[in-house]
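User: Can you help me understand a structure? I only have the sequence.
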Amino acid sequence: MAAQPLVSVTLLAYNHGKYIDQAIRSVLQQTHTDLEVVVVNDGSTDETAEILNRQTDPRVRVFHQTNQGPSMAANRALSECRGKYLAIMAGDDLLPLDRIAKQLAHYRKVGRCILFSNVEFIDEDNKLTDTDYYISNLTPANGRARVLRRLFDGNAPAFILTLFTEMQILKAEPLYCDPALYQLQDYDLMVRLAKKYDFAYQDDKLYRFRLRTGHVNLSGPDPEKLIRTTNELYLIMRSFFDGISSELFKEIFPDRVRNPNFQTPLEYLCEQAFVLLKAPTTPLRLLGAERLYDLLRQEQARAVLKQQYNFTHVSFADTIKLIDTEKRFNQTQLYLDVGKGYSEEARVCRPANLESRLFSFRFDLSKASSLQAVRWDPLEGAYCQVWLDSAGWEDSQGRKWPIDVNQLTSNGVATSDGSFLFGTKDPMIIFPVKGPAAALTLQGRWELNDACDPVRFRMSKLWPDDGCGRGEDRAITRNVYLGDNDFELTFNTSTFKSVKIVRWNPVECCLCKVHLHSVTYSDVTGTQHTLDLTKVKSNGTQLTDGAHLFDTHNPMFLFAVDNEIASITVRGHWWGPLSQTDVQYSKLLEDMSTPSRLAYWIVRRGVRKLGKFRPGKRAASYE
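Assistant: Let's start by predicting it. Here is the structure, written out as tokens:
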């Protein structure tokens, strides 16, 4: 091997014993052979070290260290690299055989940049699989301003593990990866690189990212990891504007700059604070409030805020009353359509006290002109029922216009008592407010319905009735994962004789919806039998689509069999755990003799998804 290989591939390993050998081989088998593999074992406690010590290819250089975290491992790997170019990967992933050759060729074509590629996902058995968790990372952002805007909004503009660039670019960074950051050390690196270099993308899938079970991936949706991610993002954003010129700032935030003609450094600091106030997360909005607080304590800055932005201590007090850092209250939000549709940029938020059934809100609309419509989201992230006692809006001339609450449209169901019943955690009501408006006033009451149980691992039980009772010790059990999923469960019933009836409890202690696809059983001779699903009984409500909806916490099916059965297999699709609102909502839609176009829209567009939850998206990480 040459003393200075053309490409260095860094590979970080921590308890990757099951995969590390495959990962290294996927590098050594590259069609481009002038390379080295710099492996850093970050204090693994499994067989990783032993496997690494058995490597014999001279292109593999292994370094062991005590566990210090992904940042220190990445810094150690970079310091040991000797190549002109750098590619990175994790010890539990794989590379397609042509990754290095294709990225090297593309890099030489486009010139000095930070190059990324597309990705494919594999499971623990190397089989291709799908996920939407990292979808934002795989949507390229073209241009430095768009890349930085994506990063500011908390979404990675590329999949970091596909990074390929010149070694000297990264070695020129005073701090390659910040050791104080555990989740977002790569995100911080992208922020710093995006300020100096163009990002380029290849559509080729040149990386195989392994999705590990149990949220083992460092970037997986584990609650503690997500909390740490939020806090690290706050720390990174404290210096986000460092090194960004005022011209680039205006290009990044054309929709948020208050005074596009600002020129002085003090005005620039004010604009930064106001941009932070409109950030998508509460910690960043608090950071914006901190900046304004500091500015208001300076006489010169206080004058600029008042003269240029009409912002005073009173404005500050009104601002911080809406930043709920402890998330004590749900948000009630008003989205304004000024001709460009509804967006996060055009909304008015208020905290909602769910401990009180009564509400009274006055939303300030004076900053929006030429309104086309107004959408109210009563309670963000909650199932609810809303009774509007009165609604009205005030125009810019001070005239008041009442709104007929019986003529409003929503994505809920209008009930006989005049309320809106929502079976979605994204409830919304549309108000016909048009033209220049000053305010919208709403009064009424609401009720928070049962939220879905976050525990989705439950017990499924089968009781074959052979005349000897149905004690718990006679139940055949399976641990099951609920949600919006297909299922296939096989129960071994060979110890039971003369079974005529089988009772199946799909899931214990929760409301659910079950659609049976087939029920088959094998008798003691091995012969397969298929039950007629039209004769299957349950204690739920059978819907027109064939599904069974259960409004009891003890759902059950009865299967009639006529043999000494050895096993029984149940296949189908289920939704759950459901809230009481889920069940009521489904029944209301089922009872509609002529469903409205809105009801069809709700179902077809997926606003109503019984029991289905998607994890939040965030930046990719090294594992």
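Now, to help you interpret it: Residues 451-456, 600-623 have pLDDT under 50 and may be disordered. The longest strand covers residues 565-578. Let me know which part you'd like to focus on.
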